[in-house]
Every structure is written in structure tokens, then in C-alpha cells.
């Protein structure tokens, strides 16, 4: 049972990937720290309800994502998406062009991707989770994860390909 | 499988991960061996993926974050005897409630103690919030809460340090666990981080709303995430002053 897990060992194991996921969503150190701390606060108060210790990782990522969405809901209403309008082809984006970007630029670009795709794209690049785990975290079927990812990656790379500060690459 | 279908599958492929053993990629990977143009595209995809992955992974974790998380947990930890007592009382309460509401059991309550309250205030201060009244006039803020139409808690005392060393920025009324709270925002004069409306926050609520909050007029200092807080109670009101800075900075405003 998950309640038998030592709090400090859970923190030690997961706080870094959780923080990186939080940072990719919020883009500020303060907000990412708060989000990570809030996630472990929820774990401290409700983690004992988790029956399967093997699900701790997805439980933590799911909780962080929910806390993030909850805070976003307070700030703004979700926009509507016309999924069919998004091209699935990845634009021409060269490795050399990406190497000229810094983390802030990449995360700014992620922030311009439709919000529904941001979390799957972040989890895709942070690669701490398998597709099955991403599906569990987002609470959607595997097929939905893949279609959201395809559209999210296309949007992200499209934005990066048109990044004005980039020198060359198309 | 044609080249386009293979690309649609392989655009989700992550080199250097367990995706290599994922059977859903196997056929498309084999196709790369037969199609030089597809292979060139795939190599480029892997290189772009690796470069972008590096950018995502470059976000360094703050040094003290782990210690802060563990320290915050300790704030919530109770002595064993108290846990046992709480468990015993809780067990009785559960039985009583189960009998009373058996067909429709109530959901478990949210944490309702001072530590949870203070944590929520810390998060609230750093979240994006809209001022209900934006003004640097403390009298107007007092009238706002005094009117009774806007919620919050009236009849509070602003510490002398805040009056002397900070400028009011506005206020917000909200509720925590159904109890009214007044939030008065101040500016210390330091440059504000981008998107932040203030860097000093005075929260006021009735002490009866949070009975386990510190009950004396002597401020109790504690860290909450990156904020430093002082908590005290006077004339039946519990005050939490939160600042975006350290204890020395905080004490200028008490």
C-alpha cells in the first residue's frame, strides 16, 4: 500500500522530474516550486488513499497537472479548439536551428501552443513517462494522447521554425 | 505502409528511450531501412528531438526545493499520541456518520487547520489575482471591507511598520473553507517580478475561523514556499503578513 512509502524517499525520487514538468508548464521558478510543493502537500494529506504503490509516479504527475489546470481555470476560461485546423505535418526545423534557441525561448513557444497540448508535449520531451503513463496522467485514451501529441508537436515546431531571433534553419 | 504513414508514426518516436522496444514503432522503423529519404527524415527528427529534449531538461531545480518540501511536511506532522487520539475520535465520528448518512456517505473533508490556511494564503499571494479595489488609500480599503457588501473581515489594525514603510496597492475579499478573509496588498518599493501586483500581503480573518492559529500578539515567523510570514492574533482577529523576502525584510513591516 502506498501509505507505507516514506515521504522523504518519495520526495527525493520524484521532486526533480515533477519540478521540470511544472517549470515547462509555468515557465517561472517560483510558480514551478509552488506547484511542486503543492503536489507533495496533496500527497502528504491524501497519498495514503492510493492502494497501488506502483502508481505513485503517475499519481504525482496527475496531481501536479490537475493543480496546474485548477490554477489556470481561475485565471482564464479554456479556449475552444478546432482540431482539424491544425496541420499534422512537422515543419522543417533543423537541429542547428534548435541549438541556437535557449530554454526560455523553447518554453515561451510551448506557452503559445494550445493549452490542451502543452502537458503531453512537455511529458514527451521530458521523457520520464511512457505513453501508457502519459495517458494515465492526462486521463485520456492512448489514441488521444498520440493525436494530441502530433498536433502539439506540429504547433510547437511551427512556432519555433518562425522564431524571429533564430538565425537560419528553414 | 507508405512513407507518409511511417512519418506520422515516427514523429512520436523518442530516440534513446523505451520507444525502441515499443511494437507500435517496429514496422515504421523497418520502413526506414528500405527508404533512404525516410531514413534521412528520421535521422533529422531524432536530432531535433534530442536538441529540444536538452532544452526542456536544462531547467535547473532550485537548490533548496527538496528541503522546503520536507520542511513543509514537518509542519503538518503531529505527535504520535495526538495522531492516535485523532484516529480514535475519527473512528467514532466515521461510525456515527456512516450510520447517519449510510446511503450517501459524505466526501472526506479538506484540511482545515492553520497550516493549510497559511499554505493557501502563500499560494494565493503568488497566484494571479485581480484586485477588487485598486487604491493606495488605506481609508478607502477600510471602507470597502466596512461596507458589508464586499465580503472580507472589517475592523482590523494595520501594523505601524506597514503604514510607515509600504504603500497600499489594493485589496481582495475571499473565503477560505467558507470563512471570510480580507487580503490587503502593499508595495515595499522593490522592483516587482513580472506579472506580480504587490510584494506584501496582509491577511485578516476572525480567530474563531481557525482556532489552532497562534493566539498571541507576538508574531510567529514561518517560511511558506518562497514567502516569509508572520502570524499574530489581536482583538479576536488573526493576522498573517506575508512578504516576498527574508525575515529581516519582514520585520520592517511589523
Strand content of chain A: under 5%
Q: Percent range for helical residues of chain A?
A: 55-70%
Structural class of chain B: alpha+beta
Mean pLDDT of chain A, as a whole number? 80
> What is the terminal-to-terminal distance of chain B?
72 Å
Distance N terminus to C terminus of chain A?
52 Å
Strand content of chain B: 15-25%
Overall morphology of chain A:
globular
SSE layout and pairing:
The complex is a heterodimer of chains A (170) and B (254).
Chain A (H helix, E strand, L loop, with lengths): L6 H20 L2 H18 L9 H20 L19 H5 L3 H10 L2 H12 L4 H8 L3 H20 L9
Helix pairs in contact in A: 1-2, 1-3, 1-6, 2-3, 3-7, 6-8, 7-8
Chain B lengths: L2 H8 L12 H12 L1 H22 L7 H12 L3 H21 L13 H13 L11 H9 L13 H6 L1 E10 L2 E9 L12 E7 L13 E5 L2 E8 L2 E7 L3 H5 L3
Antiparallel strand pairs in B: 1-2, 2-3, 3-6, 4-5, 5-6
Helix pairs in contact in B: 1-2, 1-3, 2-3
Walk me through the structure.
The complex is a heterodimer of chains A (170) and B (254). Chain A has helices at residues 7-26, 29-46, 56-75, 95-99, 103-112, 115-126, 131-138, 142-161. Chain A has 170 residues and is mainly α. In chain A, helix 1 packs across helix 6 (115-126). The relative contact order of chain A is 0.15. Chain B has helices at residues 3-10, 23-34, 36-57, 65-76, 80-100, 114-126, 138-146, 160-165, 247-251; strands at residues 167-176, 179-187, 200-206, 220-224, 227-234, 237-243. The relative contact order of chain B is 0.10. The radius of gyration of chain B is 27 Å and the shape is elongated. The chains are: A mainly alpha (170), B alpha+beta (254). The interface between A and B is large, with 51 and 41 residues.
In short:
Chain A is mostly helical and 170 residues long. Chain A has helices at residues 7-26, 29-46, 56-75, 95-99, 103-112, 115-126, 131-138, 142-161.
Amino acid at each position: 500500500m502506498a501509505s507505507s512509502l516514506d515521504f522523504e524517499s518519495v520526495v527525493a525520487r520524484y521532486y526533480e522530474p515533477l519540478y521540470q514538468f511544472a517549470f515547462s508548464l509555468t515557465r517561472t521558478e517560483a510558480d514551478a516550486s509552488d506547484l511542486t510543493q503543492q503536489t507533495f502537500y496533496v500527497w502528504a494529506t491524501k497519498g495514503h488513499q492510493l492502494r497501488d504503490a506502483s502508481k505513485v509516479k503517475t499519481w504525482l504527475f496527475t496531481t501536479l497537472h490537475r493543480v496546474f489546470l485548477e490554477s489556470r481555470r481561475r485565471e482564464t476560461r479554456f479556449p475552444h479548439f478546432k482540431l482539424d485546423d491544425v496541420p499534422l505535418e512537422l515543419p522543417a526545423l533543423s537541429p542547428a536551428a534548435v541549438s541556437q534557441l535557449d530554454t526560455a525561448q523553447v518554453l515561451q513557444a510551448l506557452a503559445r501552443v494550445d493549452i490542451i497540448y502543452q502537458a503531453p508535449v512537455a511529458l514527451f520531451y521530458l521523457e520520464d513517462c511512457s505513453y501508457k503513463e502519459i495517458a494515465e496522467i492526462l486521463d485520456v485514451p492512448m489514441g488521444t494522447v498520440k493525436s494530441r501529441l502530433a498536433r502539439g508537436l506540429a504547433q510547437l515546431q511551427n512556432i519555433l521554425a518562425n522564431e524571429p531571433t533564430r538565425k537560419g534553419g528553414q | 505502409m507508405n512513407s507518409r504513414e511511417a512519418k506520422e508514426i515516427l514523429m512520436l518516436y523518442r530516440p534513446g528511450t523505451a520507444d525502441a522496444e515499443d511494437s507500435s514503432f517496429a514496422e515504421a522503423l523497418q520502413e526506414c531501412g528500405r527508404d533512404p529519404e525516410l531514413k534521412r527524415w528520421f535521422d533529422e527528427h531524432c536530432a531535433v528531438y534530442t536538441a529540444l529534449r536538452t532544452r526542456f531538461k536544462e531547467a535547473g531545480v532550485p537548490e533548496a526545493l527538496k528541503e522546503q518540501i520536507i520542511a513543509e511536511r514537518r509542519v503538518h506532522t503531529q505527535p504520535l499520541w495526538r495522531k492516535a487520539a485523532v484516529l480514535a475520535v475519527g473512528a467514532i465520528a466515521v461510525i456515527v456518520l456512516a450510520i447517519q448518512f449510510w446511503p450517501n456517505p459524505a466526501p472526506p473533508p479538506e484540511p482545515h487547520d492553520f497550516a493549510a490556511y497559511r499554505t493557501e494564503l502563500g499560494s494565493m499571494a503568488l497566484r494571479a489575482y485581480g484586485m477588487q479595489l485598486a487604491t493606495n488609500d488605506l481609508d478607502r480599503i477600510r471602507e470597502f471591507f466596512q461596507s458589508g457588501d464586499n465580503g472580507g473581515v472589517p475592523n482590523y489594525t494595520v501594523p505601524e511598520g506597514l503604514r510607515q514603510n509600504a504603500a497600499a496597492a489594493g485589496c481582495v475579499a475571499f473565503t477560505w473553507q467558507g470563512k471570510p478573509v480580507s487580503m490587503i496588498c502593499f508595495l515595499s518599493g522593490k522592483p516587482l517580478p513580472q506579472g506580480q501586483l504587490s510584494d506584501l500581503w496582509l491577511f485578516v480573518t476572525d480567530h474563531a475561523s481557525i482556532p489552532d492559529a497562534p493566539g498571541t500578539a507576538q508574531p510567529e515567523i514561518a517560511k511558506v514556499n518562497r514567502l516569509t510570514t508572520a502570524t499574530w492574533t489581536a482583538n479576536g482577529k488573526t493576522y498573517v503578513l506575508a512578504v516576498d523576502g527574508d525575515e529581516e525584510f519582514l520585520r520592517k513591516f511589523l
